[in-house]
Amino acid sequence: MKLQCSITNATLAVAALSAIAFTCCSSVTHSNVANNNQPSENSVAVEDQNNKSVGGAIDNRLVTANERFGFKLFAEVSKHEAGKNVFISPASVGLALAMTYNGAVGETKQAMERALEIQGMNHAELNQAYAQLRQALATPDSKVELDIANSLWARKGVTFNPDFIQRDKQFYGADVTTLDFNDPASAATINSWVTDKTKGKISNIVDQIDAQSVLFLINAIYFKGKWSVEFDKAKTKDDTFTTGAGQQKRHPIMQQSGKYNYYEDKTFQAVSLPYGDGGVSMYVFLPKAGVSLDELQKSLTASNWDSWMKQFVQTQGEISVPRFKVEYEVGLNDALKSLGMGVAFDPNRANFTGIVQGSENAFISRVKHKTFAEVNEEGTEAAAVTSIEMRVTSVMRPPKTFRMMIDHPFFFAIRDNKTGTILFMGSIVDPVAT
To answer: Is the pLDDT of residue 364 over 90?
Structure first.
């Protein structure tokens, strides 16, 4: 599994992560930000300008925080997407917000800490933990590709806090590029970077650049993994899948048998389908008869997830998995406000003076998230992009064998098993054939 993170100051995401646009009502001038609750220059030095301290074990506080945030965000998004396929990358959104958090101050900083579940971690610890996580995700696997790229796109002529820029370059590997936002070609330049980093799966994250926009922060992730044991295409047959609306449709269903990490309780069956050497897996959770997908999703919490992950046992079984493709786009403003980040969207209260040096207040005006995934006999390809625009002013013993027919709505997640990072999660109520 390879991890690509650009760290140059030049130009120009595949399961892409995120984009943040900061906008300002007037020209930005220098201002004193020494007491803005940001890490001082000395703090950055402690974080290690030479990256010598990046190595080491992953901070479990970050893994736990990311799980809690991811399941909370999924629950909020799903509330408003009843009866629809949902697919998000909590890793993408979380990482984008973490980079933004590097410039948050006071009440805004505290609200983001609560939403991201990172209370108790200071900037230095959070940045160090993310640097370690990026390094851990880079473990090679000949059958798995995981590319992560971050970038900052700055308006020409605007002055930014150098500590903020340095931290996002150093710990998140962000490119930093200055563009003339008055040039209509600037949006195309940014979108070209997104298309490249997502290998064409996601594009056009920036529709247009507002006259008040001063910064876009883009994070992109691309994932492609081949199953440890690929499905035999000759065994794929059209069979019945019952959609969330209760309609029965003929759909290509892949078939396989063997030993799998498997778990079930009174409400669901769950199977782990590994990619490559098993460092990354897709976990599929199928509600049992009489249990709806909505009921299952209400039990999706970080605490339950951790408990379930410990109870998978190698079990002989048969599985039937639908081929599917999902392309998803959602605005995250309301979801993030519901998680306690409302102040960051309030032009009169938001405080991001750790990012832009000047007298004007920057605030988040729009958060947009786009994802893609395709699952077939060979494996999975997935991508995600998040854009944030800112402006101023009960346990059961596993059976000896099992049969798991995934022929109705289900939840699934792609998880890095070494770090516990959930890269993607979603629910499929009506699969689209690939």
So the answer is: no
pLDDT at residue 43, rounded to an integer: 31
Which of residues 391 and 25 earns the better pLDDT score? 391
Question: Whole-angstrom Cα distance, residue 21 to residue 213?
Answer: 6
Q: How far apart are CA 120 and CA 65, in angstroms?
A: 11
Beta bridge partners of 280: 275, 416
Is residue 173 assigned to a domain? yes
Mean per-residue pLDDT, 254-278 = 96
Q: Verify that 203 and 190 share a domain, yes or no.
A: yes
Burial class (CB in 10 A: 0-12, 13-18, 19+), 418: middle
Give me the pLDDT at residue 342, please: 96
CA angle in degrees (0–180, nearest 5) for 308-309-311: 65
- pLDDT above 70 covers a percentage of the chain that reads 84
257 and 204 co-located in one domain: no
The domain tally of the chain equals 2
Helical ranges in 102-137 per DSSP H: 106-116, 123-136
Query: Is there a single domain that holds both residue 263 and residue 216?
Result: no
Asked whether residue 52 falls in the same domain as residue 135, the answer is yes
Residue 63 is encoded by which pair of tokens? 């893994």
Domain hosting 303: range is 233-321+395-428
Q: How many residues does the chain have?
A: 434
Question: pLDDT digits over 166-223, tens only?
Answer: 999 999 999 999 999 889 999 999 999 999 999 999 988 998 888 888 888 888 999 9
pLDDT score at 281: 97
Mark whether 200 and 270 lie in a shared domain: no
- Whether 253 and 383 map to the same domain: the answer is no
Q: Which of 95, 113, 90 is nearest to 151 (CA)?
A: 95
CATH number at residue 382: 3.30.497.10
In whole angstroms, give the CA distance from residue 219 to residue 387: 8
Nearest to 188 by CA among 382, 12, 316: 12
DSSP 3-state of 24? coil
Distance CA 346, CA 356 (A): 16
**Two tokens at 348?**
């009169």
Can you give the pLDDT at residue 359?
Answer: 57
The answer to whether residue 410 sits within a structural domain is yes
* Residue 13 in tokens: 């995401």
Tell whether 423 and 294 lie within a shared domain: yes
- Separation between Cα atoms, residue 434 and residue 429, nearest integer Å: 15
